[in-house]
Amino acid sequence: MHIRNKILPALAILGFILAVSSALSARKAPPVAQPVAQPAAAPFETYIGGAGIVEASSNNISLGASVAGIVSKVFVQAGDKVGAGQPLFQIDERETLAEIAVKRANAAKARGALTEATASLKDYRTQFAIVKSVTDRRAVSQDEVEKRRNAEELAKAKVESAKAAVLAAEAELDAARTTLERLTVQAPIACEVLQVNIRPGEFAATGVLTTPLMRLGNLDRLHVRVDIDENDAWRFVKGSRAVASLRGQRDLKANLSYERVEPYILPKTSLTGSSTERVDTRVLQVIYSFAGSDLPAFVGQQVDVFIETPGGGKS
């Protein structure tokens, strides 16, 4: 009984100590999570910060087809450099080739009809000249003269009609040949193939596509399209210096050259993915450029851009 009286107070004291220790531990602030990569630092005392998207200096060209059909050949692959007018892919041309053969035959038939009409006109003209040259009106009746005059006029009309038929047939043939040329999609400028989204055997649709058949762009020099929040647009000065850093690699940066500003505020479309980012933001887009050798960036990649301002703080 004496031992029991000593154990119970000891257990009570021990429980009190554990409770106090747990309470103190719970009050400790949790350790701050370290970022995976340090954010980029602005090299200017006063600046505007904005998100930028790398794009081709020619703008990213979304290529489509002017004639819908099954793709028979694809001549290039992503990464190829192509010259202006170089074939990129071809739509199945068998139907158009058959149509050209029909149009060619129709044109030949029309030309033959013109030759026949011209020969008939020559014959009727000769016959009318004969009766017209007779001086003795008793030898040829007036009715015969009028008949041959009318025959000549009719032959002239047939020749004109045949000429028009030839022009129409040749125009239809030229239209079919133009369609044949349009079946081979060519590079509009000297550029590089960025993306190929079509394969032989697939159907190439016309119109505005969600995913273009091909993406092209001139990569001799890269552009950065910078979104400046509309609240900071008034602080931007044309020609201001700017620096771009790769996302997640603050030490990979390059000085940018000012190209132009597109003076129209529009809704922001390139989202950064931040949980605090406003999705109803409207932005001013400014275009800068840099040499591909200055920064290991790819078209479509996001960069952090800092644009120097004359004063008024930072954003």
Describe the structure.
With 315 residues, this protein is an alpha+beta fold. It has three helices and 14 strands. The strands form three sheets. Strands 1-10-13-12-11-14 form a six-stranded antiparallel beta barrel. A four-stranded antiparallel β-sheet has the order 2-9-7-4, with no helix packed on it. Strand 11 and strand 12 form a beta hairpin. Helix 2 packs antiparallel against helix 3. The protein is elongated. The model has no long low-confidence stretch (mean pLDDT 85).
List its salient traits.
29% strand; six-stranded antiparallel beta barrel; alpha+beta; 315 residues; single chain; four-stranded antiparallel sheet; 3 helices
Secondary-structure topology with pairs:
Layout: H1 2-26, E1 47-56, E2 61-63, E3 69-74, E4 81-82, E5 87-91, H2 94-133, H3 142-182, E6 184-186, E7 191-196, E8 203-204, E9 214-217, E10 221-229, E11 242-246, E12 249-267, E13 282-291, E14 302-308
Antiparallel strand pairs: 1-10, 1-14, 2-9, 3-5, 3-8, 4-7, 5-6, 7-9, 10-13, 11-12, 11-14, 12-13
